[in-house]
Design goal:
Uroporphyrinogen_deCOase; about 50% helix; two-stranded antiparallel ribbon; binds coproporphyrinogen III; Uroporphyrinogen_deCO2ase_HemE; about 15% strand
Length: about 325
């Protein structure tokens, strides 16, 4: 047995003092996302400490609404704040043709990272999935219940479909451009996939991601696509079977034995250490890491967290995690 490859969602971030220093020098969070030199620097920071097997582009899923002409801001302690879409007229006014030129700095960041990475380290590009990005655009930020977005999806499906179609096209083009610039795999983050009933999950999570995978594969057939339908529960199986992703990222709640038996025969699995184990550390973290390695580490597997690392994780716990994965035989 060789140790599985690993990287961590949000591996560049506030738990690292060097990130906080660069972030403070950059101005706003979006300024950092659009500054190729500094975005490349923060992408590489966690790799210098922990030598992950992959780097993930430093950016955010909300650069797409920003590129489409919606106002996006990140307020200290509040998370993202967007000017919420109010209806069909706002959807029609989205600046679809603006996306590639607006996101040029991000593509330059990709090229810079690629040029700085050793050959053996993979570069992962990413974007948000249409459903999750739509929730931010309609709610105007984070949400507890996604009520407005669901009202659009259930009660005004034609308008909602028009928005989803725009996001499918813009996001696939963006992923293709990231691959053109040097990304060697891409991940589609559907962080709020888990709040929908079955029928709507198929329509608003599975179908748009399937359309995106088809578009990306038409241009780059061999570049792996990782899907992350966080919270999909039992629907992880149909997602893995039907959407066309090469790998599926498992959230923290997915039972390991079930994943080994049902999902791993279909696709490569990635996951799923609870990020809070990285905060509490100690023997409980060690046991959780070992269970994941022992259950999933003998099949096609990438070690990761079940969601993004939190600012409270002590960097030495991440070092302990990296050591433990590398010691797996
Ligand atoms: C839902 C979502 C967002 N962004 C993202 C998602 C999907 C994954 C997930 O569910 O966590 C994805 C994302 N955001 C960021 C990355 C960078 C790459 C990485 O290291 O993984 C990635 C892949 C940087 C970031 N994106 C953000 C930060 C923190 C901003 C800061 O430094 O002040 C970072 C490092 C801001 C952000 N961006 C978003 C929120 C809700 C927030 C505020 C919450 C927070 O502050 O952690 C939207």
């Amino acid at each position: 047995m060789t140790p599985p490859p690993f990287w961590l969602m949000r591996q560049a971030g506030r738990y690292l003092p060097e990130y906080r220093a660069t972030r403070a020098a950059a101005g706003s969070f979006l300024d950092l996302c659009y500054n190729p030199e500094l975005a490349c620097e923060v992408t590489l920071q966690p790799l210098r400490r922990y030598q992950m097997d992959a780097a993930i582009l430093f950016s955010d899923i909300l650069v797409i609404p920003d590129a489409l002409g919606r106002s996006v801001a990140f307020k200290q302690g509040e998370g993202p704040v967007l000017d919420p879409l109010s209806g069909a007229a706002d959807v029609e006014a989205l600046l679809v043709s603006n996306v590639r030129s607006h996101l040029k700095p991000v593509l330059e960041t990709v090229s810079r990272i690629k040029a700085s990475l050793p050959e053996k380290t993979a570069l992962i590009g990413f974007c948000g999935a249409p459903w999750t990005v739509a929730t931010y655009m309609i709610e105007g930020g984070s949400s507890k219940d996604y009520a407005k977005t669901k009202e659009w999806a259930y009660g005004r499906p034609a308008v909602f479909q028009a928005l989803i179609d725009i996001l499918v096209e813009a996001s696939s083009d963006y992923l293709i451009a990231q691959i053109d610039a040097g990304a060697e795999a891409v991940q589609i983050f559907d962080s709020w996939a888990g709040v929908l009933p079955e029928e709507e999950f198929r329509r608003w999570v599975m179908a748009p991601i399937k359309a995106m995978v088809e578009r990306v594969k038409a241009v780059h057939p061999t570049v792996p696509v990782i899907g992350f339908p966080r919270g999909a529960g039992l629907l992880y199986e149909d997602f893995a079977r039907e959407v066309g992703c090469d790998a599926v990222s498992l959230d923290t709640t997915v039972p390991l034995d079930w994943a080994a038996r049902v999902i791993q025969p279909l696709v490569t699995v990635q996951g799923n250490l609870d990020p809070i184990h990285l905060v509490s550390g100690g023997e409980a973290m060690d046991r959780a890491i070992d269970r994941i390695l022992n259950t999933l580490g003998r099949g096609p597997f990438v070690f990761n967290l079940g969601h993004g690392i939190t600012p409270a994780a002590p960097p030495e716990h991440v070092a302990r995690l990296a050591e433990r994965i590398r010691a797996f035989r």
